[in-house]
Amino acid sequence: ASYILVLDDADRILVQRRTLSKDFCPGMLDACAGGVVTTGEEMERSARRELAEELGIMDVPLQGFGSFYAEGEGYRVWGGLFSCRYQGPLQLQAEEVSAVHWMSLTEIAERASEFTPDSLLAIATWQARR
């Protein structure tokens, strides 16, 4: 899967509230845009596709942070990790994203129990590699 942290100029992260219809962690907060990589698709192409689909973000430079492995109850995934800077208009994918908020790393840590576990691992990996 691709995982993309979207940051603003103040280093806050764009956090998504997942819709209740999602199979994995419905209604929870997610610190990453992203999703499943299709067969034959390159990781960066997946990241760009997911940014466009979920948030309407296109044509932004991506910074890569390698891959990581996440496993827990109900999931097992190799993730390709990216970040980008963006502060423009958003177009939310209604089927997947019910709301978005900008949050600092401190705010995310304080509300960690509300976040998908794989996105918390993505943040930890990003912090260790940047």
Can you give keywords for this protein?
130 residues; single chain; 25% helix; alpha+beta; four-stranded mixed beta sheet
The largest pleated sheet is described as:
4 strands, mixed
How would the global form be characterised? globular
The tally of strands reads 7
Q: Note the gap between the termini.
A: 20 Å
Please provide the ordered H/E string of secondary-structure elements.
EEEEHEEEHH
In brief:
The chain is of the alpha+beta class and 130 residues long.
SSE layout and pairing:
Blueprint: E1 2-7, E2 13-18, E3 29-30, E4 33-35, H1 43-55, E5 63-72, E6 75-85, E7 97-103, H2 105-110, H3 117-129
Parallel strand pairs: 1-6
Antiparallel strand pairs: 1-4, 2-3, 2-7, 5-6
Description:
- There is one protein chain.
- The protein is α+β, with helices and mostly antiparallel strands.
- 25% of the residues lie in helices and 35% in strands.
- The protein contains three helices and seven strands.
- It has helices spanning 43-55, 105-110, 117-129; strands spanning 2-7, 13-18, 29-30, 33-35, 63-72, 75-85, 97-103.
- Strands 4-1-6-5 form a four-stranded mixed β-sheet, with helices on both faces.
- The longest helix is centred in the middle third of the chain and has 13 residues, at 43-55.
- The radius of gyration is 13 Å and the shape is globular.
- The protein starts with a strand and ends with a helix.
- The mean pLDDT is 96.
